[in-house]
Fold this protein.
Amino acid sequence: MILYEYPFNERLRTYLRLEQLLRRLGELIARQHPLDHHFALVTIFEIMDVAARADLKSDVLKDIEKHKQQLDSYRGNPSISEAALNAVIEQLDHCFQALNSQTGKSGHALTENDWLMSIRSRVGIPGGTCGFDLPAYYAWQHRPPALRQRALEEWASTLAPLAESIYVLLKLLRDSGVPQKVAAERGQFQQTLPQGRTFQLLRLRIDPALDLIPEISGNRLIVSVRLMRMKDDMRLLSCAEDAAFELTLCA
């Protein structure tokens, strides 16, 4: 099944973008080729750009505090394991303290590294990191893979508190949804959202054998899915057949 996710607000869009970048970074650091490590550095710079948003850190801390208060209200409920509840609250406490103890924005410490910033200033230029532009960086790429990996892990560690917080918040959000099987008639699906609940994320799973691509739109009142099919020339055309998929709304 292919999973598509659609965020209902800008804050969650930022979280999902960061999650994608952080997972990519983990994949690239673990590899050994200099090209992989080049794009690992590029990814670190992209994460720094996203994390530079003025209110991101405060948004994450507020969301952690909100989840803690919600989970605390479940104490004493006989249908909930106290041990599991305590473990999640402890994890949230750890995330809050680690992120809150960081001065400035995530990755800010890296801006004091002139060598890294010289690379960052040129990665946006097509071919801007050639050996004749950045000979020191070119030499670094010829160092043993283990040395490059250690350096990348050290630089990425400045992003770890943000990364852990984002992972935990998204997991809690995704776990809040209940999957349901739905059907699109003639390639179209609409569902009115219940009043009194604010959904943040839509998750859609569809069988790749159907060869269909969902175009999702939504707001606090309604969600709409239009199924499309990609032609050989990569153009998308509306599908006019019935199709089933799995839909999850997370609040």
Remarks:
- The first strand starts at residue 2 and ends at 7.
- The radius of gyration is 22 Å.
- The chain has two domains: 9-172, 177-250.
